[in-house]
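Residues determine shape. Take a concrete instance:
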Amino acid sequence: MDQGFALPGSRRLGCLLVHGFTATPLEMRPLADALAADGFPVRAVRLAGHATAVTDLARTGWRDWLTSVDEGLSMLAEDVPHVAVAGMSLGALLALHLAATRPDAVSALVLCGTPLRLGDGRVRWLPALARIPWVARRWATIPKSNGVDIGDAAARATSERYSVMPLPALLELLRLQGLVRGELGRVTQPALLLHGRHDRSAPVANVDLLRAGLASRRIDVHVLERSGHVVTLDYDRDEVGRLAAAFLDDVERALTGPGSSARAPAGSGGR
């Protein structure tokens, strides 16, 4: 069942919102509200295996998550001629893959806490260890020992996500990481990079990896000084919304041109 959400808008550029690993579409709600308030139609997708039960996530892989994104993109593209994709963490990886493989479908990227490299270096051993049967059984689900990477205590307490990570799904995340790292040179869309200074899950050095690897002519970078990994919910969430709206406003102007209306026909927008 689709548990995403959509907010209407009158602009000709819409934004597809993609949440992170083990999270829910509500992770993107503050950003969605900020963009909708500025007239951008938005649609937030629920990735397969998320917002239900951990056992469901254990049965999914990155191609299933990409299908969820593709479905949301198709729905939003029915309403607007141009679509940007904003992703948080895993959502940012999926946005990058989509931009690399379907460049005509993606006009711009807003990449939040992009985990090209994870903070815990031990994860690189997981693919090899997972081939050992007793290890795979013993660590079928991996607890999040450091909790949710959000500095704001109130936001952390209300954040909805699984408290453990299924090993098979985590391995799929690592596979997607490797794939996306090899595709960065194919991404040419304008990109806004937003990253928390105190991100433990995906250290801020990921910004430099992105900036060096992307082929985009425009790359805007903002390090959010008060936030951890989940910048869409953390202390700087209002700044995330402001920066994203300003960036997408510039993108829309470039797409529509000075002689074109920036507003969509009456009746368009998210359903």
Observations:
- The chain has one domain: 5-256.
- The two ends are 16 Å apart (CA to CA).
